Amino acid sequence: MQPIRTPVCGTVYPEKVRLRSPILYKSSDRCFHANPWTGQAFLRPVRSRSNLHIGKGVRVTRVLVEPDGPGGGGRAVGVQYVRGRRARAVRARKEVILCAGTIGSPHLLLLSGIGPAAHLRDHGIAVLRDLPGVGLNLQDHVAMGGLAFLVNESVALVESRMQRPRYALEYALRGTGPMTLPGGAEALAFLQSPLAEAEAALAASSGPARKRSRRADVELVFGPGALPGDTGGSIRRSINLDEDFWRRVYGAVAGRDAWNAVPILLRPRSRGALRLRSANPFHWPRLHANYFQDPRDLQVLVHAIKM
């Protein structure tokens, strides 16, 4: 594998690392990193490949399947999509790879006639393959936000302070200052709740050859800011937090420096489901999250908040 030398700072990266590495910028005689957005990191370096076409403004509506015979089933041969209000189709010479995500992939399978037969017929979709499991086993990492811990120094992210032009200039020219702080997470911790510890001990005691599991079931995400610093409302608007609620809970400490800790369930036991709203591919599916259907999830999250 030939290494690639970046045009700035003379840094050498192996090719397989280049796509996932922060972009290097140069200011005077020093270098600093800036995390790229997804398209910049993964698409731009490969978009000139002759065997790759990236379509913008495209919405795939179903997978095209050629039936094998009277017994049902079939082989995926392409996709149908809409672009500019026109329905089009593209066929594959070898294979179709479905990677539309946790929500998009089962949604497309259902629209294509692959899923629970009764549910598909309810929406007037011809059944290509009766697969009851499509859309089931939906799992989500439930998190509890809102914890805030005040500090007495000006070291956290406070929106009113971050809007000062000098901070943007300092970051652009020297790569220093408060804008170098990661907005989402500055530190992570992976822990076992008392419930997981008890279950691991019980499993280990069931046989002499079994080792006690150390798998974490709780993640703590520590951030360099918190809701008291959301003086402009950008965070609470993004998470649909009621303005009156924010003022009642955080109004007395609004504008204060604070950091936050967000406990997250790593191994939820509750299971949800995705179902069609209609046969129209532009109608979002129905999500039945079933959060805390298993009471152990709530028990673990309460333990995580107290950690």
From TrEMBL:
A GO molecular function held by the record: oxidoreductase activity, acting on CH-OH group of donors
Domain Glucose-methanol-choline oxidoreductase N-terminal: 101-115
A Pfam entry, by short name: GMC_oxred_C
InterPro entries for the chain: FAD/NAD-bd_sf, GMC_OxRdtase, GMC_OxRdtase_N, GMC_OxRtase_C
Entries under PANTHER family matching the protein: GLUCOSE-METHANOL-CHOLINE GMC OXIDOREDUCTASE, GLUCOSE-METHANOL-CHOLINE OXIDOREDUCTASE N-TERMINAL DOMAIN-CONTAINING PROTEIN
Stated family: Belongs to the GMC oxidoreductase family.
Protein name: L-sorbose 1-dehydrogenase-like
Gene: LOC127752281
